Amino acid sequence: MIRLSREGRSMMKSEISLTVNGTEHELAVEPRMLLVTALREELGYTGTNIGCDTARCGACTVRVDGKAIKSCMRFAVQADGSEIETVEGLSEDGGLSPLQENFKEHHGLQCGYCTPGMLMTADTFLEDANDPSREEIREAIEGNLCRCTGYHNIIDAIEDTANQVGDGR
Ligand code: FES
Ligand code: FES
Fold it and tell me: Which of 2, 108, 119, 139 could bridge to 103 as Cys pair (CB 3.0-4.6 Å)?
């Protein structure tokens, strides 16, 4: 078994740049580091959760260059140069966004573990959705699992947000 020295391991790191919620970060990561790990452990964006680590639960969903993705399925080096939005960036003024307010109003969460990913998926869906049906909302969040709520209140929260704001957000 070949063991690399600490120096050897650090030599294997790649310098990347990630812009997260509008702030640019330069960091050195090993090629195998997942994007979710870089966000949480290297940059401190711990709002993004890790559930399954195998692309099933959606707890790690973030927006990369405008598209909601599961950040456990992308290496950090693959996101080099990308614009990333995490749940911490949903609200610009430090309060709750309309979608977050509606999750609160409708009790769209219990333990809250799925919530950051659910919010990022729903927020991205609502950017383009035009008066979505409940069925369309269900399809939009099908990649995000929630073991607590039974989904009804989550659907209510997303539906109300779509109805309240002209462009869906
Ligand atoms: S942790 Fe990424 S999909 Fe579950
Ligand atoms: S609120 Fe607990 S997993 Fe969704």
Answer: 108
Q: Is residue 77 part of a domain?
A: yes
Closest to 123 in 3D by CA, of 103, 105, 94, 106: 103
Q: What is the span of the domain harbouring residue 16?
A: 6-89
CA separation, residue 140 to residues 25, 31, 54, 86 (Å): 31, 31, 19, 18
Please name which ligand lies nearest the alpha carbon of 148.
2
* Domain containing residue 106: CATH number: 1.10.150.120
Does the Cβ of 99 fall within 6 Å of ligand 1?
no
pTM: 0.91
Pocket probe for ligand 1: among 37, 39, 53, the residue whose CB has the most ligand atoms within 8 Å is 53
Q: Ligand 2 centroid to 110 CA: how many Å?
A: 5
Task: Check whether residue 81 and residue 111 sit in a common domain.
Answer: no
